[in-house]
Amino acid sequence: MTTVLYITAHPLDTEASYSLSVGKEFVEAYRAENPNDEVVHLDLYKTDLPQIDADVLNGWYKLRTGAAFDDLTSAEKAKVSRLGELVDQFVAADKYVFVNPVWNFSYPPAMKAYIDAICVAGKTFKYVADQGPVGLLAGKKAIHIQASGSILSEGPLQASFEMSHRHWEVIMKFLGVSSTEAIFVEGMGATPDLAPAIKDKAIHKAMELARQF
């Protein structure tokens, strides 16, 4: 069975969030087209998502230098274990749907913390002599649904201001994900009178891509 990991990073609900409302339509259309696939929703604002802090770094160091897991402190055990669960869940999935708003030209900190959690040497990439890092997720697919008040996917702001989708693309390439797509819901802040039309256009694209995804 194909597993789709639906990863959202917004503290509000679908009624208040453009990104989540478009993401919901995408998932519903995907489920209708692929009723036997499993879609797992990972809400980054409602999940245990450790940041890489002193406990994590110290725990990883101890394990790398030969310590047993039981030698870690209780805080180190809890955080290192949870990060291991997150990356294993990511590796086990076949397809990924990332959904987020743009905050200050990047994504919310919860999404960055999650990306940090899944970029793990030996799990999602490896180092090869004379070649450098090589992604281990070849054959997998990902789509990024992103909402922003300004238009960031094209035009004068894109090259110098947009850092969310560009970073996501770099990470997917780094991890070896073979196929990536994007849906941008953008310009609602700059042209609020056009917001409903912008949302409808994004939903239409989402439903089209869902049937192909």
From TrEMBL:
The keyword Protein biosynthesis does not apply. Keywords: Flavoprotein, FMN, NAD, Oxidoreductase. Signal peptide: none annotated. Residues 3-206 form the Flavodoxin-like fold domain. It catalyses: N,N-dimethyl-1,4-phenylenediamine + anthranilate + 2 NAD(+) = 2-(4-dimethylaminophenyl)diazenylbenzoate + 2 NADH + 2 H(+); 2 a quinone + NADH + H(+) = 2 a 1,4-benzosemiquinone + NAD(+). SUPFAM superfamilies: Flavoproteins. Homodimer. This is FMN dependent NADH:quinone oxidoreductase. It comes from Brevibacillus nitrificans.
